[in-house]
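F-box domain-containing protein, Aegilops tauschii subsp. strangulata. Tokens?
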Amino acid sequence: STVFSAQSQQISSAIAFQNPKSPNPRSRYRQRRPPASMDAGNPEHRCRCPHGPRCTRGPRHGGLAAAALDPRVRAFPMDAATQAMYREHGMDPVTLESDVTTAMTFLHYVLPSPPFVSSRAALSAAFLPPQDDGGGVDRISGLPEELLRNIVSRLPAKDGARTAALSCRWRRVWLSTPLVLVDADLLPAGCGSSLRVERAHAQRVESAITHILDAHPGPFRFVHLISCHMQETPGLLARWLQLLAVKGVRELMLVNRPWPLDMALPATFFGMATLTRLYLGTLAFPNTADLPRGVSFPHLRELGLLGMAIVNRDMDFVLARSPVLEILCIQANVLLKWLSLVSRSLRCVQIIEGIDLNIVVKNAPNLERVIIWTSSARDGLHRIVKIGHAPALSLLGYLEPARHLLEIGNTIIKVQMALTSFHLFDIYVNG
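Tokens:
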């Protein structure tokens, strides 16, 4: 299909663009440090790197993203039919497997970390053996329910669910606690690394997720789904998204584990009106042409599209239907050739490993920063970065003369010096 062909080619381009002399995939990011002005020192400052206001580096590995790259759930090889399909399109499956593994590594650097939960947390104090001094008394269950909910919210999902079996009161506590659901927490310790075992464990994780989504009334404070083989169970992802939409999810990180690369994001996704933060990876964005006018993301403030197959029309739709969106992060864009920014709320745009991407800021009165970490042009031609109405813009970088043509209003800015890159700050245009 057009989607998987374009996605595969652009993944290969993104990998080829990385520094071939560096054995460490983080090294390219380390070469570029944001200016000191990026660290505002204000935790309330919303125009920031997704890893926090004090982040002084490029995209980095999320704290729990390592679980997604764990050998227990590593990307699995293509089956014979998928290999034949790619060969028909002139692609080498072995090379593509390697490229996708590397691309997924970079993708997980960008994913935000889940909220802190303790993998060592336990309620063992509630079941101490009887002691003469009364040490066997269940003191935890006597705490106020608000405090108990706080405790349960800090447990891994499977341990939090187990508290519901302690008593009727604990079940009420679990049912009334906004959950943090991270699929990597559901993987059994010490599971094997063969292909068959990986899929078997993935199926158990999927079953556990389905059970939790069915049993808990919501809301779900944070959902992190990056370890499942969702494409192997037809309708599974659509069901999950429907449940999350009905029960209320605030933050969602959803990454498809290939193969196939062009797995479509179900249309039930558009019912998730409670979202405040959303990151999607290696999926095909659904067609928005026939959606009802009322579809919107009224609370969405942060959006990340990582290796997503999305066309210009659908990108415009998302921006138009997200009235409070402040942060937009795009990594390894697929099919998207023109990013047209029209938003009254947008404050920060980050482009990571942009491929053949033109950026036009048409009308963004509150936009403060446009940060292009890395970019490439497969045809060797310049890509346009055009600034229209953006009176609040104070940081624009990193622009590379070999790849970018900068336009501010009707003025084209050309750099005559032989520079590999330059930083541009505090732009003022009169007239």
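The two ends are 48 Å apart (CA to CA).
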